[in-house]
Design a protein that fits this description.
The protein is built from one helix and twelve strands; from the N terminus they run E-E-E-E-H-E-E-E-E-E-E-E-E. It is mainly beta. It folds into two domains: 49 residues, no CATH class; 67 residues, OB fold (Dihydrolipoamide Acetyltransferase, E2P) (Beta Barrel). The strands form three sheets. Strands 1-2-3-4 form a four-stranded antiparallel beta sheet, with no helix packed on it. Strand 1 and strand 2 form a beta hairpin. It starts with a strand and ends with a strand.
């Protein structure tokens, strides 16, 4: 299939989207400003079913710190009850002879610490929880 282009204007700014490919199921590859996007366009009947299906609420993971990889806990630099700030280092994990500093993604109070120095942890294991 030859590439097609769509030119459109938003607030008098001209934009160009290139259609790279499309299949019979509505899946398309588009390029916009150098970035390729994969999208899926659904028939109207299918889209109506999606309106009827309730969305599962996504769990709030901002209050948990998980291990990004299996490794050895080298240090824990906080205690239960401590107030921590976004970006603050709270734990160091060693994996493949590299030390990885783990930081909290949000400010809060330490609710639980599920590891200690010397522990071996698994990938995605919850290490620290915030209130």
């Amino acid at each position: 299939m030859a590439s097609s282009a769509l030119e459109f204007s938003i607030n008098n700014d001209l934009h160009l989207i290139q259609l790279i490919s499309i299949d019979g199921t509505g899946r398309m590859r588009l390029q916009y400003e150098g970035t390729i996007y994969n999208i899926h366009v659904m028939p109207e009947k299918v889209a109506k079913y999606y309106e009827l299906i309730p969305n599962k609420p996504k769990p709030d993971v901002s209050k948990t710190l998980r291990s990004p990889m299996p490794g050895l806990v080298k240090s824990v630099s906080c205690s239960v009850g401590d107030l921590v700030s976004e970006g603050q280092e709270v734990c160091v994990i060693e994996a493949m002879k590299m030390q990885n500093s783990l930081t909290v993604s949000t400010s809060g109070k330490i609710k639980a610490i599920n590891c200690k120095s010397g522990d071996t942890v698994d990938d995605e294991q919850i290490l620290i929880q915030l209130e």
